[in-house]
Amino acid sequence: MESLEDLLGKTVDNCPCGRPHRIPTREAHLQPGSLQRLPEMAERLLAPGTLLCVADTNTWAAAGERAAEMLRENGKTVDVHFVDRRTQPAHADRETVDTLAAAIRRTRAAAVVAVGSGTINDVAKSAATLVERPLVTVATAASMNGYPSAISALTVDGVKTTEPCRPPVGIVADPEILATAPGRMTGAGFGDLLSKNASTADWMVSHALDGEYYCSFSAAVAEEAVNRCIENAGAIRENRVEGLGILAEGLLRSGVSMVIAGSSAPASGGEHLISHLWDMTAHWSGRKPALHGEQTGVTTLISLKLYEKILALDAATLRKRLRERPAESPAAFTNRMRDLFRDIAESILPFARQKYLDGPALQERRKRILARWEKVRRAVASVAIPAETSRAHLESAGAVSRAADLGISHAELVFAYRNARWIRNRYTVLDLVDELGVLEEWQEEVLAGV
Ligand SMILES: [Zn+2]
Ligand SMILES: [Zn+2]
User: Fold this and answer.
1) Domain for residue 269, yes or no?
2) Which domain holds residue 403?
3) Helix (H, G, I), strand (E, B), or coil: what is residue 218?
4) Total structural domains within the chain
5) Cβ–Cβ contacts within 10 Å for residue 295, how many?
6) Pair (241, 365) in one structural domain
7) 222, part of any domain
8) Which of 45, 109, 326, 342 is the most exposed place for a label (fewest CB within 10 A)?
């Protein structure tokens, strides 16, 4: 497998999946001290003119001030925009994106330099795309895999949504800076990366069952790097510079795998849907949401437990459950969705309806599941690992491995387990288990200890 350096800027025209791939991010610097390379990188990758440095109060102290200083010393004109002027901390929402886009226009900036992690990365990618300016990102935490991805996650009217955007042309992920981030953020990055064990299984299941597009090159790009992170969990737990370098490489490769696939499928399955729904239920109840990667590390255990049970399911039980599963009328289904999702039901329904089946379509679906069951089983067996192995990895890396440690109540856990499948049209293990008619039956055993 190619090094990260070789992958960046690459065009692949002869992939076995049949689609061409292009990775727009041209450079990434992951060596200790690589912040110093920012000015020469800006010179190479960005048009001449004013640079708008985007930060919040914390990331300004962590790296933003130094980054702006270095750029100025190298003859650049630098303006600064703080995303947390309006709310502290800043939210990745439409208003924050529009405010930044207006600042880019007002300062006539030729390019954007984003200094931060999750929120700043999402906001800067969306705003830079909106006003068509190139973006360079300086990572301040190894907390998630979205740095090089072509999607940004925004909360719009209380609903977590994703929108397409242009990835940054260059990324600096200096492990000396990443090591100064709170340990929880590093644990979150490890948790986000580890969810690959579940999301890849989901991706392969939807390929085996429904012929969904799948690219083995994309799936392979992050695989070795995930294993290297697991082997170096101790250095990651201790927030050591060498551990942070290895984690940053894993996260960037995971982000690149999404760019190759043209969707988040290689790194986001049912475990991510449960996490997104927790963000929404946190919003409803006024609870402070936990970090994305902390959540996906925990929810990966749910998906992996479901896969263990799927592998243990015998053909006779499978037939019986499929036959016994009661049908629901379209009106009853719509009412159920409205009861479940209340204020956001109208935003969820277009996705949920794509997964709803009745009458002959439901019969056909059951036949298809039975006909392709061996293929599905083989796909799962080739990638899924035991949930307890994954829990041990999380614990070795000092990442959270229980929902209660994230402030998530048992009621929220159950609600998201049962209903997360409806919030997106992506097919995941949650859909498969519900289609088999065992989602509720398995609930207690699957959620025990999560
Ligand atoms: Zn491919
Ligand atoms: Zn993620």
Assistant:
1) yes
2) 231-447
3) helix
4) 2
5) 29
6) yes
7) no
8) 326
Residue 165 near residue 151 (C-beta atoms within 8 A): yes
Asked, as a colleague might, if the bond just before 24 is cis with ω within 30 of 0, I would say no
- Which residues contact residue 49 at a Cβ distance below 8 angstroms, ignoring those fewer than 6 apart? 77, 108, 109, 110, 111
Pairing of strands 21-22, 111-116: unpaired
Distance of CA 146 from the midpoint of ligand 1 (Å): 20
Centroid of ligand 1 to alpha carbon of 20 (angstroms): 7
**Mean pLDDT, rounded, for 328-355:** 95
Q: How far is the CA of 210 from the centre of ligand 1 (A)?
A: 18
Nearest to 434 by CA among 342, 383, 369: 369
Mean pLDDT of 97-116: 98
Expressed in angstroms and rounded, the spacing between residue 383 Cα and the centre of ligand 1 is 18
Same domain, 169 and 242: no
CA nearest 312: which of 449, 433, 393, 435? 433
- Give me ligand 2 centre to Cα 167, in Å: 16
Domain boundary (143, 165, 181) is at: 181
Q: Are residues 11 and 121 in the same domain?
A: yes
Q: What is the pTM of this model?
A: 0.95
> 301 and 159 in one domain?
no
Is the per-residue pLDDT at 158 higher than 80?
Answer: no
In a domain? residue 204: no
218-262 tens-digit pLDDT: 999 999 899 999 999 999 999 999 999 999 999 999 999 999 999
List the helix and strand counts (H, then E) for the chain: 23, 10
- The answer on 368 and 306 residing in a single domain is yes
Instruction: Give residue-wise pLDDT tens across range 175-223.
Output: 999 999 999 999 999 999 999 999 999 999 999 999 999 999 999 999 9
Identify whether 189 is part of a domain. no
Residues with CB under 5 A from ligand 2 (ion): 192
Contact, 36 vs 177, CB < 8 A? Answer: no
Looking at the structure, tell me whether residues 288 and 162 fall in a common domain: no
